[in-house]
Amino acid sequence: MGMQGDVRSTHASASGLMLNFRTRLKGAVMFPLTGTTGYAVFVDNVSITGTYARSTTTATITATNHGLTAGEWVYLDWDLTDNPYQVQTVADVNTFTVTVANSGATSGNVTVWNDVLLQADASDPVSYSIVIPGQGILARTGIRIFLPASFHATVFYG
Predict the structure, then answer these.
(1) Which of 106, 113, 110, 58 is nearest to 84 (CA)?
(2) Is 44 exposed, middle or buried (0-12, 13-18, 19+ CB in 10 A)?
(3) Which of 17, 72, 83, 92 has its CA 20 to 30 A from that of 152?
(4) Predicted TM-score (pTM) of this structure
């Protein structure tokens, strides 16, 4: 078997759009710097907007045709802590819940990134590689990354 020749790479040192075209995520090298905690999250570059209402530790998100099922991961950009969250319940095609801290705003707007491709932990200041087997993970519209402060990533795609 020959070596794959269509793999390219790009580097990110801040959150944002990495690639704006259909591709496959093949792997990554993660560079968490000293004191970094949190997650680097790679998502397909399509989001939907919605609203949320928080009651103690449950946030109910309303986003039209969210396409999620219970147990899946979603990245939420909102007044509460921007992070990946696991979907707890799905009431219908427009409403789902996640567990949150019992603090912060009780309602507001949210941007839902409902196609999480990969999450990478940032708990130690040691670089590490992620190899994705097979053909990689399909990113239909590109790859966007959310990085904690002092965390860099190189992504391999093709």
Answers:
(1) 113
(2) buried
(3) 72
(4) 0.90
